[in-house]
Amino acid sequence: MSTPALDKLSLGDVVAEAEYSLTRDSLVRYAGASGDFNPIHYRDDVAASVGLPGVLAHGMLTMGMAVQPVVDWAGDPACIVDYQVRFTRPVVVDPQDGALVRVSAKVGAVDAEARTARIDLTVTVHEQTVLGKAQVQVSFAA
Amino acid sequence: MPVNPELQGRTFPPVSPYLVGREKVREFSRAVFATNPINLDPEAARAAGHPDVVAPPTFAVVVQEHTLQQLLSEPDAGIDFSRVVHGEQRFRFSRPIVAGDELTATLSVTGVKTLGGNSMVTAESTMVDANGAHVVTAISTLVVRGDDE
User: Fold this and answer.
1) What pTM, to 2 d.p., does this model score?
2) Nearest to residue B142, comparing CAs of B106, B97, B110?
3) Could you give the ipTM of this predicted complex?
4) Chain B interface residues facing chain A, Cβ-Cβ under 8 Å?
5) Does B96 sit within 8 Å of A84, measured CB to CB?
């Protein structure tokens, strides 16, 4: 496994980018894997009855997916030592077209001595940000 | 009914231990689009120095969920589940979760705030392994919407 050279990173460098195509199948799969069976994530009638614009992706699915480009950049999921997000905008998943989620991961801070970096995520759907303050602390100390 | 401010500082009894299964880690990994072999292949995980497959960073939510149920069903909490929106989430790791871990989670309510008719409840689930060593703390902020105008 090769670890990224922290001393070569500059603030604002984009270390990873990815696109994920979420479909209703993705939501059903995540519901089963996570145990979150809230029907607003798979039933249009229930989503409509509580005033939602449509079936929504689980916030935790968006969060879980958005960190994957950072995991692949770091080389090992064990490098992620802290990860936080705010859920600022729901992701509506169309029954036919799904939703395209774009992730861009930028360097927010580097501590070369401690061998850690803070990576800031920009996560968008239709050019609109869906997660706020999405920060990943990555450690290469081990 | 507003959220009971006396929830702040309350700690719940630990939930029964959660045994992290290898196939559950793989299933969860696929569900969050994780493709790293360390999440999926025990040989790759061992080659990277881990005892078994490593769970994706957000896997702890599966265990945390059991503790949040305690909070939502607390009789005096005043939390109407149908009005709850997930506001913020954080995971702070001492080490990653790996298949074979037996995690015991304990929930504490660390904050109850009221803001413009809504309540914000911050709950921390602290997870320790079979030896009692800290693995991860999952911190959720739930927004409980106030009564409709």
Assistant:
1) 0.95
2) B110
3) 0.95
4) 24, 27-28, 30-36, 38-39, 48, 50, 54-58, 61-62, 65, 82, 85-93, 95-96, 139
5) no
